[in-house]
Write a structure and sequence with these properties.
Layout (H helix, E strand, L loop, with lengths): L2 E6 L2 E7 L4 E5 L6 E2 L10 E6 L2 E6 L6 E3 L2 E3 L1 E3 L5 E4 L2 E6 L29 H4 L3 E2 L5 E3 L17 E6 L8 E3 L4 E6 L3 E8 L2 E8 L5 E2 L2 E2 L5 E2 L4 E5 L2 E8 L7
Parallel strand pairs: 3-4
Antiparallel strand pairs: 1-2, 1-11, 3-5, 5-6, 6-9, 7-8, 7-10, 10-11, 12-13, 13-16, 14-15, 14-23, 16-17, 17-18, 18-21, 19-20, 19-22, 22-23
């Protein structure tokens, strides 16, 4: 499990395991990591941990968030990164990766998708980078280890299908361990594929995605067959495609 080491002036104050999908940092007492210092905003930053990856987002703090001396708004955390909040330091320590053949990591950072060229680009599906036009986009923020556990073999494939707007009817198979959905800067969520199902988690934006007419919270939610998701104004239906019809 990844963890943070909180220190000030070289003195270690606390060790915090990242055992939640969202870990908030700030001066107010409701934060997971409370730093009672006026240089720290009430809600300063958040770390989202999904599978074996984590990324940091500054929550429009007054004095900013720095990683390794550089001001950041969003940052994919790497082993031994130093997050700086005023005089405080948070060292990010990631578990040593499993070097078995089934746990290869491929890093692919968020990039805007040019939806106008999707039809002509053969890489659109091989990299799971698909745009839904001006309303929203789908892109792979990073690729987690490929799921090759026996529980996944022969299991139904998750699919999302757009049900409103000019891209109605468009589908995306959720074949990767992690797929990012939404419009960067407006609202972003991720769907993770796990041995016991598909889960949706809010990542970015002031408002949370809507599932079957009800706004989600910060926790991961298990998706059911024919659930209706609304992200950044785009409605889509999640459904399970049986193994027999995959690739048909």
């Amino acid at each position: 499990m990844a963890k943070l080491i909180l220190s000030m002036d070289g003195l270690v104050l606390k060790e915090i395991p990242l055992n939640k999908e969202r870990t908030t940092i700030g001066r107010k007492p409701h934060n997971d990591i409370q730093i009672d210092n006026l240089a720290i905003s009430g809600e300063h930053a958040v770390i989202v941990a999904i599978l074996n990856d984590a990324f940091l987002e500054d929550l429009n703090s007054t004095n900013g968030t720095y990683v390794n001396g550089q001001s950041v708004k969003k940052h994919v955390l790497k082993d031994n990164d130093i997050v700086e909040l005023g005089k405080y330091r948070l060292k990010f320590l990631k578990d040593a990766p499993d070097l078995s053949p089934s746990s290869t990591f491929e890093k692919a950072f968020v990039s805007p998708v040019d939806s106008a060229n999707l039809g002509a680009s053969p890489r659109a599906h091989t990299e799971t980078m698909v745009g839904f036009g001006a309303e929203a986009s789908v892109t792979s923020e990073w690729k987690a280890p490929v799921d090759t556990t026996p529980a996944m073999v022969g299991e139904p494939m998750g699919v999302v299908q757009i049900i409103n707007g000019r891209n109605a009817g468009r589908e995306l198979e959720l074949s990767k361990s992690l797929t990012t959905l939404g419009k960067p800067g407006v609202q972003v969520a991720v769907i993770t594929r796990r041995p016991h199902g598909y889960f949706i988690t809010h990542v970015e934006g002031d408002s949370f995605p809507v599932l079957n007419g009800k706004q989600l919270d910060a926790q991961a939610h298990l998706l059911g067959d024919h659930d209706v998701i609304e992200i950044a104004g785009v409605k889509m239906e999640f459904y399970l495609r049986s193994a027999a019809t995959q690739g048909a």
